[in-house]
Amino acid sequence: MAKKDLLNWIELSRGAIDKNINSLARLAPGRIMAVCVKANAYGHGLTEVVGLLRKNSHVSYLTVHSLDEAIRCRDAGWTRKIMLLGPIALDMTEAVLRYDLEPVIFNRDFLIRLGRIAKKHDRQVCTHLKLETGTHRLGVTEKDLPAFAKIYHQYPSVIPYGASTHFANIEDTTSHDYAEYQLANFERMLRQLAKLKIKPTVRHTASSAATILFRKTHFEMVRPGIAVYGLWPSKETYLSYRLLGGENDLFEPVLGWKTRVSQIKQLPADSYVGYGRTYRTTSPARIAVLPIGYYDGYDRALSNQGHVLIRGRRAPIRGRICMNITMADITDIKQVRFEEEVTIIGSGGSETITADTLADWARTINYEILARISPEMPRTIVK
Predict the structure, then answer these.
(1) Catalytic residue set
(2) Which residue intervals of the chain bear CATH 2.40.37.10?
(3) E strand or H helix at 10, and its extent?
(4) Residue 374 class from Cβ within 10 Å (0-12 exposed, 13-18 middle, 19+ buried)?
């Protein structure tokens, strides 16, 4: 479908994603790079992003949360390694072999089931042991390590290829004492595993923030996510990096989000706009009605808060954002036409609205802004 036929669409920059991965590869030279494509590739579109990453030699792993995401990666033509981060139903364990996946291990019942199936099919399966160091989500505690080691020894077809952990507080602060505490826990648990005759080949702890800030967390592999898509994990990460003397032009946002003007309305003074009468004009106004709403992922919290870009100028949102419709004030923007292109995320003229901008207005984080963009929206690749 040609862009002129679309009312709402996402643009993905091939050049930006290559630049971001090259920047990460410079920060962690020689590391096997795992790129997170969970949550529909952070809202960018899993199939489209896999197509872009297939052409990048730095990326030898993809990481996904669910079996469904892993299958979609295979269907999209990904032939390299896939690490499955999240849980999988016991009855679906055989799919690990069928789709050649490397599951992250944190459940004994699953590990036993995987061991039995691998033995039955005479197959070796690489796994990654998730060590609980202080985030207290999925993970194996130190006291449970002997039980997991026993299962690995019982089923030698299941290989403890990797060991990982995840930092709880490396993005939200410029003080990284807790990350240091977790890293010390991780290294102590690795020593305990060695005593149990379990020695993983690949250690990986580094999210985007850790990849950017802490070389000692890189080990044999890094697992960047949001930075691949050209966004900083947080303002604190950016500040910490710049205080360390880091360059400003490290990343470039990959995603642009566009819509079109569906109707232009001329309103008199004292007219209400939208549900709940939350906005009232104080003088004659021109309102552009846009065919986008919270169903598409445009957060309702942006009502009477956000802006869009039309003809390179900011048009403020008026009234409540609806399920499929949003209204913007174009009173001071001349010559706006029916089906004029409107920028939700991206640049126009001298103005830019980023996912971080929307996150600030909606009082959330850039991850959520991106991940909630409707997977049904068309994605197009631009140079």
Answers:
(1) 38, 275
(2) 255-382
(3) strand 8-13
(4) middle
Amino acid at position 229, single letter:
Y
d(CA 297, CA 368): 9
pLDDT digits (tens, 9 = 90+) for 95-140: 999 999 999 999 999 999 999 999 999 999 999 999 999 999 999 9
Question: Rounded to the nearest 5 degrees, what angle is found at the Cα of 101, between the Cα atoms of 66 and 149?
Answer: 100
Per-residue CA distances from 101 to 119, 161, 197 (Å): 16, 12, 24
Any idea what DSSP says for residue 338? T
Q: Hey, what CATH class is 14-243 in?
A: alpha beta
In angstroms, the Cα distances linking 141 to 5, 65, 187 are: 54, 21, 13
With beta carbons less than 8 A apart as the criterion, state whether 311 and 340 touch: yes
SS3 category, 77 = coil
pTM of the model: 0.94
Architecture field, domain 255-382: Beta Barrel (2.40)
- CATH 3.20.20.10 residue ranges of the chain are 14-243
CA atoms 225, 227, 229, 233: torsion sign: positive
CA triple 338-294-353, angle to 5 deg: 65
CB 348 within 8 A of CB 308: no
Task: Look up residue 218 and give its two tokens.
Answer: 């890189």
